[in-house]
Design the sequence.
């Protein structure tokens, strides 16, 4: 089984709310991201790991954006019910670290509105695992029937943690893809110029 699969939790049936369809859509995004991240970390993407991580991160940020613009969700209970233990994702993190070895470390501006800007260093493998942990926590609530708790958690953690982490990951992955495409084209042009010069040299 996946190391992202959540454990069994006590099911709580909440009355139908207007948010159920919205919650189902977010849960689908979350489940898709977690499954894709596991598959990519296990090498199933081959040489397409970086582009696929870029795609999956973009899609989960779309879900986060929808959560971010929504009015604040209010959980049904005053205190968060125990969803059970969070999944152990250390093996996932280690696999990602090996997979992303040459591009794992990156730097970014932590808050673009702080002057002077603060440059922070991070690891893609750590950030992706942290995102997965936050998303899986909310999914545990959702699968246990606590829809309002799941929505509250996903929204709160998007604003407080995984939204910022995913934005940094997205910028880093997009930079890797851009360098791969543009640097290769630049080198190709240089090779063509060098070949032309060689032909034109008497």
Sequence:
């Amino acid at each position: 089984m996946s190391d992202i699969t959540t454990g069994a939790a006590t099911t709580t049936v909440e009355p139908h709310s207007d948010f159920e369809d919205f919650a189902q859509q977010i849960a689908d995004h979350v489940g898709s991201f977690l499954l894709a991240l596991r598959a990519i970390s296990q090498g199933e993407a081959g040489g397409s790991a970086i582009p696929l991580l870029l795609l999956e991160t973009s899609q989960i940020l779309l879900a986060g954006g929808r959560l971010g613009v929504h009015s604040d969700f209010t959980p049904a209970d005053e205190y968060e019910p125990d969803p059970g233990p969070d999944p152990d994702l250390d093996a996932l993190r280690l696999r990602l670290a090996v997979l992303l070895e040459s591009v794992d470390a990156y730097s970014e501006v932590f808050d673009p509105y702080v002057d002077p800007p603060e440059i922070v260093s991070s690891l893609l493998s750590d950030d992706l695992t942290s995102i997965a942990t936050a998303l899986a926590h909310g999914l545990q609530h959702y699968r246990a029937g606590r829809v309002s708790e799941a929505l509250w958690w996903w929204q709160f953690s998007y604003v407080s943690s995984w939204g910022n982490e995913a934005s940094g990951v997205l910028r880093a992955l997009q930079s890797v893809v851009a360098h791969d495409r543009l640097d290769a084209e630049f080198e190709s042009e240089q090779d063509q110029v060098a070949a032309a010069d060689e032909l034109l040299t008497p």
